[in-house]
Amino acid sequence: MPKTHKIKLNYEFQEPILSGEKTFEVRYNDRGYQKGDLVEFLVAEGRRSVHEPLDGKLFEITYVLSGWHIDPGYVVFGIKPVKGGDGDGRS
Q1: Of residues 80 and 87, more confidently modeled
Q2: pLDDT, tens digit, for every residue of 16-41?
Q3: Distance between CA atoms of 17 and 74, rounded to whole angstroms?
Q4: How far is Cα 39 from Cα 37, in angstroms, rounded to an integer?
Q5: Beta strands 74-81 and 58-65: pairing type?
Q6: What are the b/e assignments for 76-89, b being 16+ CB within 10 Å?
Q7: Residue 14 has what DSSP assignment?
Q8: Angle at 32 between CA 28 and CA 33, to 5 degrees
Q9: Which of 45, 53, 70, 83 falls between 20 and 30 A from 89, CA-CA?
């Protein structure tokens, strides 16, 4: 069973994710991100959470990369919208 990770996202990155331009995340791997896990972004401006169009949308982790000149403890993972996970039908 995949985990669902709820992670904060800076407001400035919301639109590139919604448009499909940004299909990856760079994160400290304190959650054990795995291919197939789900991500729900919590949009924030500074330290304040805000309600935005990204709320409630789920993304699947499609690939996890560590090593390869990525700082120890960090990963880069690919994401794609979950079909039916946000009502827009994208896959």
Answers
A1: 80
A2: 999 999 999 999 999 999 999 999 99
A3: 20
A4: 7
A5: antiparallel
A6: bbebebbeebbeee
A7: H
A8: 80
A9: 45
Residue with token string 């090593």: 67
Amino acid 32 reads G
Contact 43, 11 (CB under 8 A): yes
Residue 73 pLDDT exceeds 60: yes
Model pTM score: 0.83
Distance from the first to the final alpha carbon of the chain: 20
Question: Which CATH number fits the domain 4-81, given the four candidates 2.40.30.60, 3.90.1170.40, 3.40.50.2000, 2.30.130.30?
Answer: 2.30.130.30
Is it the case that residue 11 has pLDDT exceeding 80?
Answer: yes
Q: To the nearest whole percent, how much of the chain has pLDDT over 70? A: 84
Is 50 in a helix, a strand, or coil? coil
Instruction: From 38, 24, 50, select the one nearest 85 (Cα to Cα).
Output: 38
For residue 4, give the nearest of 40, 30, 31 by alpha carbon: 40
